[in-house]
């Protein structure tokens, strides 16, 4: 999933939970290290935090920037144009107030299949000939992220001594996989969604993800928080060049 905010350095999205200042550093997994030395750290990160940051992941920075450019180009269109790509059934464009459990504000999103054979017909009426460019960028990005996710899942299986090594990753790569790719865009909000200082308070409330893992990336926008065993929330500093992996309920 890619999280996109309004293209402004001051725009933020936050959860509604209270954050406690903490010097705790969440785990960092370097995929350039030998698997034997990193898989133990990865399993410990899953068990202790349920969350970790991935660096040297092999997804080209240029590709990440290109996807973000295409996504922002889409979300900057008039609502009447974007609506042609919706509603999601199950894939497409959505625009609604978010959630019921402590969520605040509005979210626009694109929910897309990870099947690289998809033709993205919904976007042809919006992008015209450029729809093929959009499809190619998404497919190339998804393929690169899938490769990274499979490497992570195989290291988890190794660390847990699960046989076969690809028992988790092959579910992601299966032709009938129900994995999805989602781009979230948080537009600027009306005064009802601002605090006393005029800052926007936009985002999802506390929750867990039902999947095996969720792979997240932000366009250098702060707001992501994780909940620790000691009962405190800590903020995760944004890093647009890295990925963050959240352990889902299924893997837990």
TrEMBL record:
BP GO terms, sorted: gibberellin catabolic process; response to light stimulus
Keyword presence, Repeat: no
GO molecular function terms listed in the Swiss-Prot or TrEMBL record: gibberellin 2-beta-dioxygenase activity; metal ion binding
Occurrences of domain Non-haem dioxygenase N-terminal (ranges): 27-115
InterPro entries noted in UniProt: DIOX_N (IPR026992), IPNS-like_FE2OG_OXY (IPR044861), IPNS-like_sf (IPR027443), Iron_ascorbate_oxido_reductase (IPR050231)
Keywords carried by this UniProt record: Iron, Metal-binding
Location of the Isopenicillin N synthase-like Fe(2+) 2OG dioxygenase domain: 178-252
Keyword set includes Iron-sulfur: no
Xref: PANTHER family: 2-OXOGLUTARATE (2OG) AND FE(II)-DEPENDENT OXYGENASE SUPERFAMILY PROTEIN-RELATED
Name listed for the protein in its UniProt record: Fe2OG dioxygenase domain-containing protein
Organism for this UniProt entry: Erythranthe guttata
High-level lineage: Eukaryota, Viridiplantae, Streptophyta, Embryophyta, Tracheophyta
